[in-house]
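Chapter review: from sequence to fold.
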Amino acid sequence: MTDRRQVLKFRVRAQQLDRTEGTLADTAVLDIGVQDTGPAGGGWALAVRGLDAAVTCGDDLVLLWTVRGAPHLYRRADVAAVAAAVAPWSDADAGKRIYDAAKPLKAAGIDNLTALDTVAAALRAIVTEPTVKGDVSGRLSTALPEPYLRFCRPCDATHIFEMPFRLATVRAGLELQPDTSPPVLRRIPGFREAADAGDRLDLVRAYLRLLGPATPGHVAAYLDAPVKDVKARWPEDVREVTVDGETRWILAADEQALASAEAAVTRLLGPFDLFLQAKDRATLVPDVAHAKELWPVLGRPGAVLVDGEVVGTWRPRKSGSRMTLTVNPWQKLPESRRRAVVEQAERLAAHRAVALAGVDFAD
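The token string follows.
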């Protein structure tokens, strides 16, 4: 029997949230992708894992629309294998990942994988130089037939369905230009998809390595993939463990690390940090009210992580070149932990190139 606290300590260590320095090459979360959503996005997720801005601001990272259609950072050297890793495993998998776009395609007799290849070919023809997403979408709407398109009421216009658009960009060899809003798409120099992702970038293995112990259902939920497809790719070198009465699995190579992990660290995690993306939310945050606060439908806060436990939320308030952080602890924090939170707030302010006006604890 493994308790939830040991699971969380294992994830802190596996995701390197306890280290103070590192390199892109040895940063484990880049194997599964680092979601780059919001001001406390990919850059901050790498910063809290010991990477400084000089390392993360160069051209050694690539930003792609991949898992769940969200923008993720990867090592540029891995881009060919990443494209293979994030490709749907079957037509049913592709249909699940593109959501409501699958229905009109099926009605028209178009396979989902064929549809993604068709969109990718159109994207490759359109994006010959850096191009704003809206312009790409407009040109796709004239290049593709009706089953690929939908009427958008807010825009009063017809667009391509969003998820086939996003998921086809990697197939087309396109990346997102960093720090652009609206997004700008551009070609990946010399792109050619690899034949195989390899074990390190395999998404099932990466999930187990970084967010385990887990079930096929957890992995499927993370990827928006069918459980059947995940089970078909379930590794053989796993060990069964019981977490809070539930049977889960961990890679055999990580079994000892799970049993012995310790985590004595305080971090401010961004709203979409990988640690918070695990699909066993009740393991991460057992209290229902706290879970609702951490994962609202809109406007997620960041999380205060202390010794492997999420112990509260944080939100920034920026005014000019100054930032105030409001922290809502879920338990009484000793003075030493409050000081650690303030230190992390100072790091966050420096990362965002603003001055820290103060940290307001809401308790």
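Two observations follow directly from the output. The first strand starts at residue 34 and ends at 35. The chain has two domains: 4-187, 266-361.
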